[in-house]
Amino acid sequence: MEVKPESRFRFRSIKEYPRIAEYIARFDTEVTRVNSIAILIGLLTGLVIGVYDRALEYSNTLFGMQQGFSLHEFPHYYVIFMPALGGLVVGIISHFFIKKNYGVGGLIETVTLRGAKIRLKDAFLEVFTSIITISSGGALGKEAPGVVAGAGTGALVGRILKSPERQLQTLLGCGAAGGIAAAFSTPLAGVVFVVEVIYGELETRTFIPIVISSVFATLVSNTLFGVKILQISSFQLVSPYKELGLCLVLGLLAGIVSTILIRTLYYIQDLFSKISLHPVFKPALGGLAVGVMGLFYPQVLGMGYEVITDALNSNLAFNLLLILFFLKILAFSLTLGSGGSGGVIAPSLFTGAMLGGAFGTVVNLFFPETISEPGAYAMIGMGAVFAGTARAPLTAILILFEMTRDYSLILPLMFSCVLSNVMSNALYRESIFTEGLRRKGFKIRKGREVDIMGSMFVKDAMVKHVQTVSEDKNVGTLISLMQASRHAGFPVLDSKGKLSGIVTLSDLRSKVKYGEVDKKIGDIATRNVEVAYPDETLEAILKRLGSKQIGRIPVVDREDRTKLLGLITRSDVVNSYNKKVIEKVRDTE
């Protein structure tokens, strides 16, 4: 039998090179994998936002809503009924094909309560309906749909890779940050928006992949599609100290306007919910009202970036600024409150620009040639109203700063945004994103539902059949009981069956020496016991457990502190909370 000579070349396993294998293993970590996925999500999100931007541009041209359009090109009935027709199409799609609408508020709910699980079909249909709404004249923005598109992209990648829930939340945030970054060409603002608005707090494990995704999304949208929003002129402070005082007033006014914007939206939404009309036709009714306004003031139709640019260039008269200020709030509320699809960021920037422009025009009359031109105040007003509406001052500051690349107005911009946020928060607790969640029964702060604990009581979470020990028994009995039950503490009863204390594993370790198994339990039990009552809230109990650094509390009768009714532990509180969250989520589906 002929034996073939061994080939000179062969593929070798990486295990044959232990140093190389060890080097690769150092980088093959969860952090590296998540960061690599973040790059992929950033690239895909940039592509999605670029395609969305082109589709919206084409749709605007198709409907006649392209930048610089003139009413003289169309008959009056077309201008009036165009938003209504778009609303009708959106109503049909939303009612028959979309089970859940997202938006930024929906994403907050998804991340906080639903394990970052998105219905991809609903998310991308919502993006599609936003194109119809905006291009037919609806007074909304494209940034929130961009966030939904980015989040949907992140969720899709996570689903394909079968990522665990904890990782899926990070990937969703990567897509959302990429959506804002690509839509505005503001990568840093995209990161801060997700941290400040959607997550509610900064975590190291999520920050780096979100930054990576935001950068790559911006690179793709700028390089391949040239996505640009606003070209803002550079402004200079003429009298810094005087103008800081004026910015204080503007910031407070912006906080008030932010509250008006939020209240008007949800007031209109409540009105439409009470109208006995099929849901399919409600967006059409809202669109019809917007179309009537657009017949007289077409500037309120669509996103209105060209109008914002005119305000920044000080090209709008005072009367027109005021009229557009009020009409945009109403048109925005009618479009979104009736069931239209789109974002709230562009309308808040529009409203802020009109407010700031009008304010700048007035103060220039009082201080001619000694302060900045009205356009500078229009820019500050944009950031301030957005900050108060979204309760996102850092995002507002960074969006305007990254748009202008100009540091000269950063101090008054920061000042006004923070003041607006403080004023708006004082007047109305919820942001424009979280108010909708509050109406569903969710109170979310810093990315967590905090109101559930305040509505749950000890009697609903406590263990009623409690294993107890007698104070007359010895330590040996207690040790055997702990080993058998795997509990680390027990209420202690006296000879009459009354609560006399509590004994825990820490009491055994600190008060019993080796061999003292005959020592009485009553001699080592803690007598000054923290107790709970059945009608106390779980929020109060959780705070008590944390402040006292204990793991369990006996539940007693308010009239008789020695009458044991049950026991509540930290795990009982957590389990009851999780069960309640699941029930609330199911009720809202």
TrEMBL record:
Taxonomic superkingdom: Archaea
Parts of the chain that traverse the membrane: 34-52, 77-98, 171-195, 207-225, 246-268, 280-297, 318-338, 344-367, 379-401
Cross-referenced Pfam families: CBS, Voltage_CLC
Subcellular location: Membrane
GO biological process, one term: methionine biosynthetic process
Membrane topology (UniProt): Multi-pass membrane protein
GO molecular function terms listed in the Swiss-Prot or TrEMBL record: chloride channel activity
Keyword Methyltransferase annotated: no
Primary location recorded for the protein, binned into one broad class: membrane
InterPro entries: CBS_dom (IPR000644), CBS_dom_sf (IPR046342), Cl-channel_core (IPR014743), ClC (IPR001807), ClC-type_chloride_channel (IPR050368)
CDD domains named in the record: Voltage_gated_ClC
GO cellular component, one term: chloride channel complex
Keyword set, alphabetical order: Amino-acid biosynthesis, CBS domain, Chloride, Chloride channel, Ion channel, Ion transport, Membrane, Methionine biosynthesis, Transmembrane, Transmembrane helix, Transport
CBS domain: residues covered: 462-519, 525-584
Name by which UniProt lists this protein: Inosine-5'-monophosphate dehydrogenase
Organism: Methanosarcina mazei LYC
